[in-house]
Structures are given as C-alpha cells and as structure tokens.
Write a structure and sequence with these properties.
By secondary structure, the chain is of the alpha+beta class. The protein is built from 19 helices and nine strands. The structure holds adenosine-5'-diphosphate and magnesium ion (MG).
C-alpha cells in the first residue's frame, strides 16, 4: 500500500468493490480525514470506466444531503482517477447485518430505512438514479446515521442489467438486488431503485438476502427475479408483520407501475405501518380481519360472476381496474415468455378495460406483427389510446410512427412533440431519439449541444444507442477541431 496519495497520508484500506479501492487518508496540512476512492489501475485505461468514474464524481457533486456521502474533490493525475470523499466512520450494511448484528427488528429498521428513503427521494428529485443499491453501498455510523455511497459507476457495475464482464468473463457485482427490468437488460429508472430498496428492506428485516450466489446459480437467481415473488419474510423470521410484508411486496412488484410511485410514497407507507404484535400468527380470524383478504374474496366472486355472464359495465370502476391490471400482468408475463398468441388474449381484455400499459403493449404486437398480423394503423390507434392516458412508452412509440410514417403520414414536428412528452417523463429511448432529431435537424432546428445533452441523459440510463450516437457526435467534433480554427 502506498504511503501517500495527493497530499493525503494513507492510513489504511477501508474497502474495495469490483472496480475501486477506498482508503482512509489524512490531509497532511489540516489533519482532515477523508475517504480516497481510486479506480483500480488495470481499469484506468478502460474508456467506459473512466467515464463512469467521472460520472460518479459529477453525480456526487450535484448532491448535498446528510445521508449521502459528500464529494470533496476529484483528480486525474498520471493516469490515476481519484475521488476524495468525506470519511464516514462506519461499517457498510453488508458487514453490519452479516457479521455484526444479524437482522434488524422492525421498529429500528423503519427508522434506518426512512433515512435511506430520504436520501433517494432527494437524489431522484435531482435526476440521479443510483442503479446499484445494495448493502455494501450503504454505510451506517455508530450513531445509526445512514450514508449512501457508490453513485454513478453503478451502471457499469451491473446496475442497469448491461452488466460489465471482465476479460475473463466473470461478472462484477451481484444480481440479487436487481429489478426484473434490469435483469432483462432494460433501462433502470427510479422505479428500479425502489425495487432494490425493497430487497434491501427484506434483508434488513430477516438478516438474509432473498437469494444467494452461494447456493444458487446466477441464472436461477435471475429467473426468480423475473418470475417469482420474494420469499415470505415470516418464513425466515416469524415476527415480521404482515403490514411490512405488504410494503416489501409493493416495492418489489414485477411491474414498475405496481410499485411505489416515488420514495416519498414509499416513506409514507413505512411510517403508517403498524408495528407487529407478538402473536401475529396467521389464524383465520386475523386473516379475515385483513381488508385485503376480504377485497380479494370479493374480487374473486365478481370474476366468477363475470364468467357467469355478467357485463363489466355493471361492475364498479375500481374492480374493473384491478381486473384489467391482473389481465395485463398475465398478458405481460406471456409476452415476455414470447407466447404472443396467448398474450394477445389477456392484453386485449386489459386494453378493452382501459389499461394503458396493455393498450401500449397490444399496440406493439400490431406494430411488430407479434401474435397478430402486422397492422400499423391498429398499432397507431392503440398507442393513441395509451398516449391519451399519459403513457410514456406509448408517447415514444407513437412519436416513432410519425418519425417513420408508419400507419400515419410522416410528420417530424409531431414526432418531436411526442418524443418531448415522453422525455419529460424520463423515457430513455425518447431521449435518444429526440437527441437524434436535434442532431439531424428533423422537426426542430439543428442543435448539437441539445443533442449531446439528450444523448447524455439517455446514456446515463444505460441506453447503448445513445452512447453510440454521443461518441460518434463527439468524435466528429474532435476530428473537425484540429483541422478547423
Ligand atoms: N466515504 C467512505 N467512508 C468510509 N468508508 C467508505 C467510504 N466510501 C466507501 N467506503 C467503504 O469502501 C467500500 C467500497 O466503496 P464503494 O464506493 O462501494 O466502491 P466500489 O464501487 O468499488 O464497490 C464500501 O462498502 C465501504 O465499506
Ligand atoms: Mg460498492
């Protein structure tokens, strides 16, 4: 170990992850203790890694929150990348739970978890998504203060599903906390962070991660994540309340739209949850007292009546919605399993009941000719229904129809308008395509700065095309620069 980095005397190694080492340093002039994170030397020539490391510094620079580690400075010296942060006297939650403490009882876990939600509510509101929330990236001080670390390079470390593989092919990081969409390699957004937070909460309350690479192959874990709900916490620790189980279930719902909308909503649920009573056993009276069980029975009855020939028009709006959501869920599962013929049946039912996700996905079936004969006009009709309900994915797809002249008359201005709606909701593909509109000047005035900004936003969400476009745009500038004045 070195004696000195920059003007800091190195005291000891604090920790290491897949891509960096973190040292405790002391400023030789002031005596201030700092945490020095250095990109592993063998990664320092890796262009993407450098970008991510810088990205981490830039993300941290935007954040100023008591539960997020503070950036002090960032340096690139002699091909070394160094990020100096506030030193936090702490252990990370991984060690805290597995080595020191074991499970954290509900009342205490709630208090700690609210600090985390506060940090992520703040980060999300500032446009930053962590994408790699797991216990080793959360620090806890002796006074029970929480600090989040490891922002930004998360994406490369596997956070968004496009996991980094080293030259030998081993994956860096763990899939255990990844959301289904990240496992599928789709873009990660704040809903993905909420999923990972749900898994983290499960681990705090039971002392165990829901899956372990020690006992299962990575592929099997990924399959669980996509298909199965998390193991019941009561099965691991019987005093976990039903209320908090319901909260973890909502946070870790397979479908993003079924999760908490944001960390604020998540926090309200946690704060409202009643603490467990020690006799909280699943006896049938308790069971019947649970309003959700009653609601479930009622819904089941209605569905049965529905089969007996009832018309949906006679059923209250709320149940119609639930039924639509269930049908969509089923349709989506089948769609993801590429069983398009069967998926179509459920998606049609849900779309007819007004479910915007189903309208969008059924539109996609017609757009791509999956399970149905390709029909752009029908795709456009369905997208439009979904757009009317503000669905971001449909806004993008309908925009794309206008961009390409699929099922509508080509209209770049309309494409731009729709992309923009979708961008306003943080849709990464729309960010990329709107960026391209600015780069090429289709439907808007050419504006390279705006194109770059949009590509960067999209790239930060893991969109590979945006990264490609951004690189091409930057290198065309670089080539133009030396030749020009
Ligand atoms: N500011 C800090 N203060 C104290 N310890 C830290 C700090 N930052 C990181 N650590 C320790 O170093 C470990 C690795 O840091 P992290 O930023 O997650 O790097 P990596 O991305 O390589 O995993 C953490 O789990 C924690 O134990
Ligand atoms: Mg880490």
């Amino acid at each position: 170990m070195e004696q000195q980095i920059l003007n800091y005397k190195i005291e000891r190694l604090l920790g290491e992850g897949g891509m960096s080492q973190v040292y405790l340093g002391v400023d030789q002039a002031t005596g201030q203790k700092v945490a020095i994170k250095e990109l592993l030397p063998h990664l320092a020539n890796h262009h993407d890694m450098r970008l991510r490391f810088l990205n981490e510094a830039q993300s941290l620079a935007k954040l100023n929150h008591p539960n997020i580690v503070r950036l002090i400075r960032y340096e690139e010296v002699e091909n070394r990348l160094i990020l100096v942060q506030e030193y936090v006297e702490s252990v990370n939650l991984e060690e805290y739970i597995t080595k020191q403490r074991g499970l954290i009882p509900e009342s205490e876990a709630k208090e700690l978890f609210c600090q985390l939600l506060d940090a992520f509510a703040y980060a999300h509101d500032n446009g930053i998504i962590h994408r790699d929330i797991k216990p080793s990236n959360i620090l806890i001080t002796p006074a029970n203060q929480i600090k989040v670390v490891d922002f930004g390079i998360a994406k490369i470390a596997g956070g968004d599903g496009t996991s980094l593989r080293t030259k030998t092919g081993t994956k860096i990081g763990t899939p255990v906390y990844m959301s289904p969409e990240q496992v599928r390699g789709q873009v990660a957004d704040r809903q993905s962070d909420i999923y990972s937070l749900g898994v983290l909460l499960h681990q705090m309350l039971t002392g165990r991660a829901p899956y372990s690479l020690d006992t299962e192959a990575e592929f099997d874990i990924e399959t669980h994540i996509v298909k199965d709900r998390l193991p019941r916490m009561k099965g691991i620790y019987e005093y976990v309340s039903n209320g908090i189980q319901a909260i973890v279930d909502k946070a870790t719902a397979k479908e993003k739209s079924a999760r908490y909308r944001d960390c604020q909503e998540f926090m309200r649920a946690i704060k409202a949850a009643k603490l467990p009573r020690f006799s909280e056993s699943p006896d049938w009276r308790e069971w019947l007292r649970d309003k959700r069980v009653i609601a479930g029975l009622v819904v089941m009855l209605c569905v049965m009546l529905g089969f007996a020939g009832f018309k949906y028009s006679g059923i209250p709006e709320k149940w119609k919605k639930q039924d639509a959501a269930q049908a969509y869920e089923q349709g989506k599962l089948l769609y993801d399993a590429k069983k398009y013929d069967e998926a179509k049946v459920f998606l049609e039912k849900a779309a007819t009941l007004g479910n915007p996700d189903a309208q969008f996905r059924l539109g996609l079936c017609y757009d791509k000719g999956k399970g149905v004969k390709q029909d752009y006009a029908e795709a456009v009709r369905l997208y439009r229904l979904s757009v009317d309900q503000g669905n971001a994915a449909a806004q993008f797809q309908l925009g794309y129809c206008y961009d390409e002249g699929h099922g509508v008359k080509q209209d770049y201005a309309e494409a731009v308008r729709l992309y923009r709606l979708s961008v306003d909701q943080g849709n990464a593909v729309a960010q990329c395509n709107l960026g391209a509109c600015y780069e090429l000047g289709t439907g808007v005035r050419k504006d390279y700065a705006e194109a770059k900004r949009l590509y960067r936003l999209s790239d930060a969400q893991g969109n590979a095309q945006a990264r490609k476009n951004l690189r091409a745009l930057l290198s065309s500038f670089a080539q133009a620069a030396p030749a020009g004045k």
